[in-house]
Amino acid sequence: MLKPEWDFFEQHKTELSEKYSNKVVVISGEAVVGVFESELDAYYETKKEIPPGSFIVKRCAIDAAEI
How many CA atoms does the CB half-sphere of 26 hold within 13 Å? Predict the structure, then answer.
């Protein structure tokens, strides 16, 4: 169900970690649709615009090797 989002994250995790170090990103489809400080903020703010179950919330590691 969320395979495109997981695939996008896996394919871009190094660049996402460099750009959004220690931030939480929300991915819907094949795009980053939000950047937040916490997973809870990311989820609650995103679900106002995008239905739950159609996006993923992932923290970008400071070091891409941590992912």
Answer: 24
Residue for token digits 């190094």? 14
User: Around 61, how many Cα atoms within 13 Å sit in the side-chain half-sphere?
Assistant: 10
Given a contact cutoff of 8 angstroms between Cβ atoms, the answer to whether 37 and 66 are in contact is no
* DSSP-derived secondary structure letter, 42: H
Is residue 17 within 8 Å of residue 60, measured between CB atoms? yes
Answer yes or no: pTM beyond 0.70: yes
CA distance linking residue 23 with residue 7, whole number of Å:
19
Using the predicted structure, report yes or no on whether residue 8 has a pLDDT greater than 60.
yes
